[in-house]
Structures are given as C-alpha cells and as structure tokens.
C-alpha cells in the first residue's frame, strides 16, 4: 500500500475510516480491529506496539466508566450499590466502542505511512494549491520540530540544562528553554522557506505539475475491491437488509444479508494486508533472483 497511487490510497482509507466510524456492528468492529492492527504492525511495528500499549488501558477504562454510569439495556447482569444496573447490552456496546476507537487509530497509522506529503500535494496541488502547500508544510513540520527538539535537548545537556536530571523545578525550566529553542528554530526555518518561495515566484502565475505516480494494475485491483465492497455495504445497510441493535436488547441477526456484509467488509479490511504481504514477497523474490 505504500507504493499505491495517491487516488487509490485516499479512496481506500476514506472508505475504511468512514465505515469503521459509522457502522458499529460487532462483527465489523472485530474484523477491523484485527486487520487494522496487523496492517499497522506490518508498516511500523514499534509505533503500533506503543499505540496499543497506550490505547488498550484507555479503552478498558472508558468501558468501565460507561458500565458504571449507563444502565441502558434489559439484560441485567449485576446491581451496583448506587442503584445502577450493569447490563449485557452496555457491556457489549462499551467493548466494541473501544475496539472501534483502537481500529480508527490503527487505520490512521496506515494512512500516515501510505499518504505521504508528496501524495497529498499530488491530490490537491492542481485544485487547491494553497491548501496542498499548507498541508505539506504542516506534515513536514511535525517530525522536523520533534527532531529539532531532540537536537536542542542534546545540546542543552552539555551546558547544564538537562531535562532528565535534577529537581522538578529545574527540569521544567530546562524543558521550557529547550522548547523555546526548538520553536524559534522552526519559525526561522519557516520564514526562510516562505521568503525562498516568494523569490521563486510562487503564486504569481499558473503552476505546472510534475508527477512520478503511475496507475499500476495493482492500483486498479485495490480500487475495484474498494468500490465494490463499499457500495455493497452501503446498499445492504441503507436498505435495512443488514442491521444490528445494541439497545434495548442486543440483536445480531445472522441472515444471508448480514453474512454478506461481513464478508464484504472482511475483504475490504484484508486488502491492504494482502497487498503489503504480496509486495514484500515480490521484493524478496527479485532480491533472491538478483
């Protein structure tokens, strides 16, 4: 998916993120959680592991809070001293809402890895050049600021301003100093960039565009799968043939329409994992041949 065409990647991630956020079917959430986590680990294992380490306790805490303060549902599991009831419906809804949140974060890890700044500029450069430039500079400034902050912290450590040692007051003062240096350096670099673009005539005439992206057969396959599966899921749920209920009673029918929607969603979620594994296999095959 990292080498896919920008239009293909944008269409795919827009589809899976919107469906994950809107269609909160338990089966959908389970499939999205597994597939998005596998895809995120394939792209960036360290980031995915750190994200899961942070998100899992937060999702469980949110589920516990929802259980304590929400008593919707008719299947009572236990009674609290406060008088609220813990219901099966609230438990299921809380767990799968947490799964939805983690899935969305995992999809965004894949989006951040696959939709680079040059792809964003390619998508928006002709129609909205100013917005494309703003997004490109914003996406570039975040890792640049983090890098400059690390450099400033390393430099300040040699002059006695260590943010990792000393008392709390001293560390806060050192951290503020490091942050000030990083912000000043970043703003100065942004001013140089703006001045350079002005001298080169940016915005004074119609821009020409050069693109290195080409629509490959794999892009056609991924886009076709995205369009077919997304359309099928929208039709099945919009027509009411596939449905689910959390309240007042948890209902998850397993009709042919519901199973079809689950299969379409599974195919859509597995697509980037299959594309990434196939790309790695072909890369190893070429390296082995060479």
UniProtKB/TrEMBL annotation:
Chief subcellular location: membrane
Organism of origin: [Eubacterium] siraeum DSM 15702
Cellular location(s): Membrane
The protein's name in its UniProt record: Cobalt transport protein
Highest taxon of the lineage: Bacteria
Pfam families: CbiQ (PF02361)
Transmembrane segments: 12-42, 48-69, 90-109, 121-139, 220-239, 259-278
CC per GO annotation: plasma membrane
InterPro entries: ABC/ECF_trnsptr_transmembrane (IPR003339)
This protein's UniProt keywords: Membrane, Transmembrane, Transmembrane helix
